[in-house]
Design brief:
This protein is α+β, with helices and mostly antiparallel strands and 234 residues long. 31% of the residues lie in helices and 26% in strands. Strand 6 and strand 7 form a beta hairpin.
C-alpha cells in the first residue's frame, strides 16, 4: 500500500473519530488538535494551478520548511536578526513545520498589471493557542518582521478564526509592492493565501475567494475525501 495514502487514511480516521466525539451541535465544525504532526498532509491542503486567478500562473515552488529552513529564508530578508536568533523565536512561538506552494509567471515583467505571485501556506503549530497567536500577533507566520506595519481589512469568519491585512513595501524602481493576505486557523494549523503585486493590483474579494477555496482542500484533507473539483469557468 502507498505510504502516503495509508497516512492519509489514518489521518482521516482520527479526524472522523474526533468529530464524532467532539460534536456539540450547531453548524460550525470542530478541528481536532490531538493529531500527531506527521499525520497532517500539508501538500494536499494547498491551492492548485486550476485555482489561480489568472491563466498562465504555474507552480514554481512546492516544499516543506522546518524552523531552521524558515529562519534561514527570513534572514535573507531581515539581515539584522541572525538565523539562530530567529530559530529560537520560532521554537518559542510553537512553530513546528510549514509547507508553501507558490505560483508565478514564466515572465513576470510581461504581467506587471497583474499579481506577481500567489502563495498558499499551511503551517503546523504545537497547539491551538500558538496557532491563534500566529494569526493575531505574528502576521500569520509569514516572512514579515514583527516591526512591519500592517493594514488590516475585514474578512468573513473562516474556520476557527480568520484575518486579513495588507503589507506594503517600497521596491524602489517599480514602486510600492503590496502583499494581500487572508489567513485562517483549523485547530493548530494556520493557513494563509498571499497575493503579491504592485500597488493597484490588489483585490480583497479575490484573495478572500482563494482562501475560501483553500478551506475546501483543507476540509477534504481532514475528512479523507477527494479534493474539490476544479472551479467552473465563468
Amino acid at each position: 500500500m502507498n505510504d502516503a495514502r495509508f497516512r492519509h487514511g489514518v489521518f482521516a480516521l482520527i479526524v472522523a473519530s474526533a468529530l464524532v466525539l467532539g460534536a456539540c451541535g450547531g453548524d460550525s465544525r470542530s478541528y481536532p488538535v490531538d493529531i500527531d504532526d506527521e499525520e497532517f498532509d500539508l501538500p494536499i491542503m494547498q491551492l492548485g494551478e486550476e485555482d489561480m486567478p489568472f491563466e498562465g500562473m504555474v507552480l514554481a515552488v512546492s516544499d516543506a520548511f522546518d524552523n531552521e529552513d524558515w529562519a534561514e529564508i527570513f534572514a535573507r530578508q531581515d539581515p539584522f536578526i541572525e538565523p539562530e536568533q530567529r530559530l529560537g523565536q520560532f521554537e518559542a512561538q510553537g512553530r513546528v513545520l510549514g509547507h508553501l506552494a507558490l505560483y508565478s509567471w514564466d515572465d513576470p515583467m510581461r504581467n506587471l498589471g497583474k499579481v506577481f505571485q500567489v502563495e498558499s501556506h499551511a503551517t503546523i503549530y504545537q497547539d491551538a493557542e500558538a496557532a491563534s497567536n500566529a494569526i493575531s500577533l505574528r502576521a500569520c507566520g509569514l516572512l514579515i518582521g514583527d516591526d512591519r506595519p500592517l493594514d488590516p481589512f475585514d474578512v468573513p469568519h473562516v474556520a476557527d478564526e480568520s484575518a486579513g491585512f495588507f503589507h506594503r513595501r517600497d521596491t524602489g524602481t517599480l514602486g510600492i509592492a503590496v502583499e494581500t493576505v487572508v489567513c485562517f486557523r483549523t485547530g493548530r494549523l494556520v493557513h494563509a493565501v498571499v497575493e503579491n503585486g504592485l500597488d493597484g493590483t490588489q483585490d480583497v474579494e479575490r484573495t478572500i475567494g482563494l482562501a475560501e477555496r483553500k478551506l475546501e482542500y483543507v476540509d477534504a484533507a481532514f475528512d479523507g475525501t477527494d479534493p474539490p473539483p476544479p472551479p467552473e469557468e465563468t
